[in-house]
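Good morning C.,

I know you're traveling, so I'll keep this short. The sequence:
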Amino acid sequence: VDEYVKGDSFFDVFAGTGVVTKEFVNDFNHFIINDFLYSNNVIYKAFFGTQKYDIKKLLNLKQVYNEITNRDYDDTYLEDNYGGKFFSNYDAMKIGEIRERIERNKEINEREKSILIASLLYSLDNIANTVGHYDAYRKSNNNNLVDRFKFELINPLNESEKSFSIFRKDSNQLVREIKADVAFIDPPYNSRQYSRFYHVLETIVKWDKPALSGVAMKPPSENMSDYSKVSAPKMFDDLISHLNVKYIIVTYNNTYKPKSSSSKNKITHEQIIESLMKVGHTRQFEHSYKFFNTGKTDLKDHKEFVFITEVGVFNDNINEGKLEEK
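The tokens, ready to paste straight into the viewer:
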């Protein structure tokens, strides 16, 4: 990437948990980070926020939270809905009690609150009875769930010389408002609706305690992405055409013909190239892809592609190359 991309500002359009921004934090000075999940938004505020925080206060709260043995402030919502499913009953009680105490705490600022909530998310995700997401829990384990929860603090970045602008907006709208040197795009282009896949984390962050239903105890549908529907190619083309940047980096993996319908890409390799070549000269790189797989996908030729487009520079050919494995 360093060979083909230059600039001072980096726009992470579909930032997920922020791992790409963390990877590039030493390469740029100004960052724009966006994702539509509430859980990811609080993670950005925790890791990248600029407000000062008191580490001694947070360490003291960590000790207090880990010493919780019973419910003092929370109701039974988390235990009733997630106990014996995603967590043991005791762990569900403890998670709910910690979240309620964070919500009631008037002695912490917004950055400290975000750090505590993000820490709670990472801590509970480490022991959740799942296969990496919350679309379902592992039923073979739910009668033997052990109490394993331990509250651990995250390590926020302390990049005082960097600037971070954090958004939770529709990406296609946001690109019309942002100017940057480099845009990084990893859109949710299969059928998995991430607000549904990570509904437990979303509910704990929002803490609005909605009515839940179904085997996986999901809330009513909201925050659904058009990139996981048949309209994805049109949405992607609109996004690319309205980016106000010098360089575009797009990542894409070729699960277009899997056996699992939820893994099936809504945007083809060809459609991505077509949209990118409309705005500038595009280079394509590929390497083997490590991915989440339910065992229903033929993996023989599974590749991840990285496209780098220099906006406003046109060439009818696509340059191809291999990415070096780190």
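Safe travels,
E.
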